[in-house]
Every structure is written in structure tokens, then in C-alpha cells.
## 1
Amino acid sequence: MAKAKRGSERREEALSRERIVDAAIELLDTEGENGLTFRALATRLATGPGAIYWHIANKSELLVAASDAVVARAMADVAAHATARKTIRSIAVGVFEAIDAHPWVGAQLSRGPWQTATLQIFERIGRQVQALGVPDGAQFTAASALVSYILGVSDQNAANGRLLEPAVDRADFLETESARWKELDAHEYPFTRKVATQLRKHDDRAEFLAGIDLILAGIAASL
Amino acid sequence: MAKAKRGSERREEALSRERIVDAAIELLDTEGENGLTFRALATRLATGPGAIYWHIANKSELLVAASDAVVARAMADVAAHATARKTIRSIAVGVFEAIDAHPWVGAQLSRGPWQTATLQIFERIGRQVQALGVPDGAQFTAASALVSYILGVSDQNAANGRLLEPAVDRADFLETESARWKELDAHEYPFTRKVATQLRKHDDRAEFLAGIDLILAGIAASL
DNA sequence: GGCATGTTGGAACGCTGTTCCAGTCGTGTC
DNA sequence: GACACGACTGGAACAGCGTTCCAACATGCC
């Protein structure tokens, strides 16, 4: 243990699992998914790659730890509301925004499901499903449908952002994409062409919540 | 152009984009996502890595082409049904099963959304949403909620399978996972612990369809 | 002081995607 | 028939990755 002799840490600050995970999150946020390498991480922590492996088994574990941390913070920030319905919407938005701010989390959560981060979300949603009055036998289905939808859309949304360099404007992107849809083959893609116009004034967050409401309506209808 | 002089190809068979994509799909299916490398692909095609790059720009393009091919085949196999509702369920199952059989497709579709494969699914679902009688202004929302749910759950499901070696039985996996849930902290995870038992008799496909029905019920309720 | 233990960081390994390029093949032109 | 040219091939080489290994260091205990 590199315990401090008096008040000063060993050298600047000792290496620790927490410090490594924090640095990894920063690197992922600023440089993107490919920006996280053990060498870059080592440089940022002023050490060598080997030292990191003393605290963390491998890159996969590092990614799990990083996404767990991000989701935990997001869940802690979710406020309770008067109704279960409002709380569910609030949890959903919390996850959506956390993944929007840290797009790599989306990729990570769909890579290995049922890791701690996913369970945290499932638990929070599940309690509210219970509060909605869904009968015991249907709670699992309702909760996992909601969680799957939330993670699916959030990741899809984040993937859009991951493709483009930060410089590209979101409105420009939608404009371009809408134009692409309109140029699709008229016989093969009639529906897509028809709704291409709607894509231009598309608000991801609003659309996401509309989907949540659709599922909530379905749950309410089958009570 | 290595055009055939008479009936026989140049040497065995000429390299072509199609042959490369087919070999890539085989490799991904048999060896998993990490099994696809340009060297392994070159060996299988009895050539060198450089030759492949004449036909395909990079690995990303290869993955897009491979998943497009798989989805296209799955969509071609979907039968039309009497009601829009049944057809939607059928498309959903088709995608679910295609991703279950080729787990790497799930990862690929969530990596870069709005590629041809996703659009194909969106189009097919969209037409049925129209047939359901959803008003013009709400079709986009309904269709994209369904597609997001379908891709989200299918990928989540595939990710479960991707983790384990083929030897592990599905029932064993659920048993282990259920046991893990029951050992969670009682104060932090009351809901998850409560539904842990339901996880044991969990049928992914049935649960998936139940979620579809939930969304369809929501759509019907808001007509 | 000296030893054991926990921790560090740099060198090295095997693998990857990708680039480069010297060579081969089939064909169109004189 | 010779020649040249563009399409195509495949092996060598490069930079970078995750990971392993290990000689060196720091510190707490006897």
C-alpha cells in the first residue's frame, strides 16, 4: 500500500481504480470510443500501461466500470415525482440524456446486457411499474419492455452522434438524411419517402418520450 | 475484368465483392465477431489481404454489407398475413430470429443506425403502421418506436448469446442469472429480487412478442 | 539495517487494419 | 504475333493495439 507518510500522497496522487476509471471516462468523452487506449490512459495518468493492469483486469472491465459509474450518477440525479408515470418518464429521460452526453455508454450497454448499469435501470423502472398497479405476473414483461425500449432508442440516438464529428450540426444532419430518404427507390421505399419530410422537424427527445407514452398506454390498456 | 474466356472462371472462382461478403458472413457465424479478420478472410478465400481491399474499402464497409445481406434475406422470407397486426408480429419475429442466428448483426445495426438494413425494416414496419390506420402525423413515431424496440430487444438478446461459448445451455444461464439476482442487496434491489424467480421460466421470444403487443395496444388506444 | 510485500512503468509479444507495390492475367490495338 | 495497358492479385511491411513480463522501487515490519 502506498500509504501517505503524513499528509502528502506518494507522488502527486497514487494510482487507484477510481482515478483510472475517471480518467477513462474523460478520455472517452473527449476523444471518443477509439480514444481510450491503455497507452493514452497511461500518459494521462503519468505512468506506464503495466501499472494500470495492477488495478484493472482488462479493457472490458474498464468499460464496464466506466459505464456503471456514469449510469449510477445519472440515476442518482433522477428526482421522484408524484405519479409513477411521471417518475418513469423522468428515469427514461435521465438515461437518454446520460447516453446522449456519453455516447460510448450506449455501445457498452448493448455489448453486455445485465451488467450492473442495466440492472440499476431495470430496478428503478420495475419499482414504478409496480406502483402503476401492474399485476405481479406481468411486471417483468412490462419492466423489461420499457428498459429495452429506453436502451434501444438511447443507443440508436447516440450512435447517430458518434458517427459525425462534433462540428456537424444536428439540423444539417437531419436535412441531409431527409434528402437521402427522398431519393430512395419509389417502388421499394414508398413509406420511408413519404415520412422523409417529417424527419426534418424531428426531435429525438420528444419522439423518444412519445414512444414511452405509447408503451405506457399499452400497459394501462391491459390493466 | 477477369472475364471468363468460355465457361470456366479464372482460377477456381474469381474474387468478387459478393464472394467476399459471403465468406465474411460464414466467418462471423462460425468464429464470432472477433473471428473476422482480413487475414482469416484472405486464407479462406485463398488470397492475400491486399486483394480484398481492391473490392472493399475497409472493415466497416464489409460489416455493413454483411448485415445488409442478412437482413435482406430475412425480410424476403417474411410472409404477408391477413391483418397488419399479424404482419407486424411476423416482421418482428423475422428480425429477432435473424439476429439470434447471426448475433453480430445486432451489434452492427446499433453501431451505425439508418444504414440500409435498418431502413429496410423501417419501411416494412411503416407500411403496416399505415395499414393499421394510424393517422399520417403519428406514423413516423409509431414506426420508429416499433423499430427501436425490435432492434433494441433483438440486440440485447443476441448479446446474451454472444457472451457465452456455444456449449452453455440457455436454461443453465437463466438459472445462474436468476440466482445472481436473488443475492443482490435487499435494500437496493427489492424489485429485481422479487422478479428473479420469473426470470427462470423466461422465454425471450415470448417476452419479445409481449412487448410488441404492448406497443401495438398503445397505438390502438391512441387511434 | 534488512527483508517481504505491494506497486510501478517500460520493454516486448503477437495480433490487428491498412498500405504499398512488384508482379500476373486477359484483352484491344497495331 | 507482339506489345502495351488496365484490371486484378497477394505477400511484405507499418503503425498501433491489448496484454504480459519483469527489473526496479517504496514502504511497513522485525
## 2
Amino acid sequence: MPTSTRFAVAVHILTALAVSDGKPLRSEDIAYSANTGAVVIRGLLSRLSDAGLTRSQLGAGGGSLLAKPARKIRLLDVYAAVEDTELFSLHRTPPCESCAVGGNILEAIQPVLDRARKALEAELAKATVADVAAEVARLGKFSIPLVW
Amino acid sequence: MPTSTRFAVAVHILTALAVSDGKPLRSEDIAYSANTGAVVIRGLLSRLSDAGLTRSQLGAGGGSLLAKPARKIRLLDVYAAVEDTELFSLHRTPPCESCAVGGNILEAIQPVLDRARKALEAELAKATVADVAAEVARLGKFSIPLVW
DNA sequence: TAGTGTGTAATAGTGATGGTTACACACAAA
DNA sequence: TTTGTGTGTAACCATCACTATTACACACTA
């Protein structure tokens, strides 16, 4: 049960903003880096902004900025901001209520699925955008802030 | 991404087989319990059989059986048998190679995503089909084997 | 005031998914 | 051996989420 590409691109966006370190980035520039369209980026920025992770400056010289320090933004926050669907999908049509298994299977597996989901979320809570930005800087052999 | 319901239905199938405890179940009967089509069930049984989790008896009185004890079948085995896609999707089109962030973001986030995936898998490895079957029996107030 | 960039609606193409029909084949029961 | 049952798989279809793209109103800066 896959996530959309939104999570990966959203992390990309936030990492770019972290690397930019206070200088507003245009959606078009982020789109170039992520190899997608500027509207896609703005759609994600809209979600990230709703979640309180980014903010925008309108007008010439404007763009997007982190709304709080990169080290305060956990990947879990990003995940929650852009992923809509449940990690585990259940039956498309609910199983037979009156069946021995069908009538109880959902309730029976829910605790296990919850534990699995929470384990995943706990890992995503351990890493921050600052961590990712630092790793990108290390791999790319540059320092933050990066002058574009 | 439309997330698949295969995992939930596959667990349903195996739980039914565990509850049946050696008596072959027809795909049609499982389909009734899961509220889907028999061909959908047979498609999943085909994957589960390939993974060594079930086997089938052809002919009259035939159906499907567990290929090994329910307590030896971990939900992780089921997950691996029926889920095709990666848990985390990355960019649809690879990001800009020559960009500071785009050129390094994939490598930078991969370790985090791997840890998250492994944490999820570790939880799914802790639960078995026997556990789910026992929980279903408890909730449904019946004992295994259940005579249909 | 002119120009820049955001925010969002609308639309379209794509791909995975699940539902369904059809049918060949293996096996059991008689 | 024959008959009937149930599996295994291919083919086709409708649906839906997702991403890309166009279009345009609006806010803000220089």
C-alpha cells in the first residue's frame, strides 16, 4: 500500500527551503529541482502551509519559506500534511457481517495494523527536515545556506 | 495512489482457512465471506500459493488449505506475498541531477525511509495468522475448528 | 502602476485496482 | 470411464487516485 509521491516531493520542497535558509524560493525553481510542474509544487506548498510548516511571500521577489526552524519539522509532520489515505486499506466493500470470519476480521486485525502504523510513524518522527538538509549538504559537498 | 486492499483480503482468506482447520474451502465461499468475487479470491490464492502459504485441492470437494501451520505464517509473509509496490513512492520523474538538492535528495532520504519500512515490517512479523484466527474466534465466540 | 509570483479551479491522461465473464483443465466421486 | 465440481488464468471493463497542465484572479513588491 504505497504512499503517493507527494511525501517525497514535499520533503524535497522543505529541504530546498531549509538549504535556502531564509531566502524565498519560487515554486518554479523548486519545480525545476524536483522535475515537475510549478503548480504541483504550489499545491503541495498549500498543504504544507495549512499544516503550519511553510509560509509564502507574494509579489516580486517572493516565494516560500519555512514557517519554523527545519529542526522543528519532523518527517512525520510532513507525512501527515500531504498523505490523505490510510496506510492500510481494508476491504473495498465491507465483509459479510453475519459470517464467522467476515464479521470479526476487521476488528481482529485493526490492533495489529495500528501497531505497524505507529511503528512507522515513530521512525518518521525521529528525523527532521534539518537532518535531511544536512545529509544533502554532506552528499553534495556544500554548506547551508547555499547561495543559488 | 490507490492503495490495494489485497493485504486485508489475503489475511481474511488465510484466517478463514485457519478457522476451517484442514477442511478445504472453496474460493466461492471465501468470496462470500469477504464480499467480493471468487476470481478475486483465486487471484490472491494464486499469489499466496506461489509464496508457499497455501495449496489447493482440485476437483469435487476441493478448495484451498494452508500449506503450513497458521502459527508459522506471519502477517509480514502475507504482506510480502500480495503487495507489489514500494511502501514509499519517490518522484514520478527523477529529480534534477545537477541540482544541489535534487541531485542528492533521494540518497539522503532513503535511509530514513528504510528504517520506517523496517519498523513496520517488524511489527507485521510479530503477528501470525494463528493470532488473528484466535482473535476472530474470541470476538465471534466460537472455537476452532469451526464447522461451517 | 507594472510586473512578479502565488493560489486555486478545471481538465486531461495515466496506471493500478477490483469486478466480471469465459473457458480450459485437473481431480474426485459415481 | 464418465460426470460434475472447483481451480487457474486470460481478457476486458469501469473506477478512482494521482500527476501534469492550462488558465486566470489576486496580492504584493519594486
